[in-house]
Amino acid sequence: xxxxxxxxxxxxxxxxxxxxxxxxxxxxxxxxxxxxxxxxxxxxxxxxxxxxxxxxxxxxxxxxxxxxxxxxxxxxxxxxxxxxxxxxxxxxxxxxxxxxxxxxxxxxxxxxxxxxxxxxxxxxxxxxxxxxxxxxxxxxxxxxxxxxxxxxxxxxxxxxxxxxxxxxxxxxxxxxxxxxxxxxxxxxxxxxxxxxxxxxxxxxxxxxxxxxxxxxxxxxxxxxxxxxxxxxxxxxxxxxxxxxxxxxxxxxxxxxxxxxxxxxxxxxxxxxxxxxxxxxxxxxxxxxxxxxxxxxxxxxxxxxxx
Length: 306
Ligand SMILES: Nc1ncnc2c1ncn2[C@@H]1O[C@H](COP(=O)(O)OP(=O)(O)OP(=O)(O)O)[C@@H](O)[C@H]1O
Prior knowledge:
Layout: E1 2-11, E2 14-24, E3 28-33, H1 40-47, E4 55-60, H2 71-74, E5 75-78, H3 90-100, H4 106-114, H5 130-142, E6 148-152, H6 160-175, E7 179-183, H7 187-193, E8 196-201, E9 204-210, H8 211-218, E10 222-226, H9 230-239, E11 243-246, E12 251-255, H10 259-268, E13 275-279, H11 283-291
Parallel strand pairs: 3-7, 3-8, 5-6, 6-7
Antiparallel strand pairs: 1-2, 1-4, 8-9, 10-12, 10-13, 11-12
């Protein structure tokens, strides 16, 4: 579990993180979202003891990072996959990490196997593709078999196959009971990967809840209806006090009613329905709605820094 309590970081006059409190639970993937400059990387660095908070604290399973005896055995992180020495092989790199952290050498081959790099383990890491580098970064994070894992933008620049692999891998880690916090700009990907979200803007907490709740909370619920007698049905629905918008080819968008309520109005009045489908907003729409005011650099209406 990760607990941030009143976490604050100032760089001179810039407040990167401001009185931020949140909890990341084990057994699920938690997405860490926020517009550019929201303070995600700064927060992750503070979790990992790489940056000192100006105020507040962050605990990993109840202990601050700098008080953990064997940090690699408690927390693993992927911050920058390209930090490996280019002339080292993947295996040499992991062996060096294992030896300098008192981790048994057998873990090196175990993690190489887990991330699917066994065949290229003796090749120069400098020649690795981005996807392979990400796998090596993940292998490094897993070396100490930690309960808590942090990944900063792990799917950036990956092809769809690489993205899918990372998604499944993270969900697998969470299913093993680990705490997995992952930041990403790819919101549609996060909607598929993360069960929970911590959303920040301008260094402050905007929301901490499940992904489903985040979408429901921000978006107006609407139900799409198709009926041959759409004009009569629209009148019936309006008489019930529901808001009805008439679209092209008689498609009705109904707000303020559940699918069940609409179905009952139809049945009660002998209206034939061809479609009745509740609409859900995308995570992008919910995110734009909730973080709209907290974007640091506004560049235009469509481009909101994500
Ligand atoms: N070392 C630093 N010195 C000064 N200001 C910094 C430093 N690191 C971060 N900042 C500032 O703190 C704020 C938060 O930055 P941070 O990199 O944590 O955001 P982020 O959410 O990770 O952004 P991105 O998604 O663009 O990576 C920004 O205004 C940034 O300019």
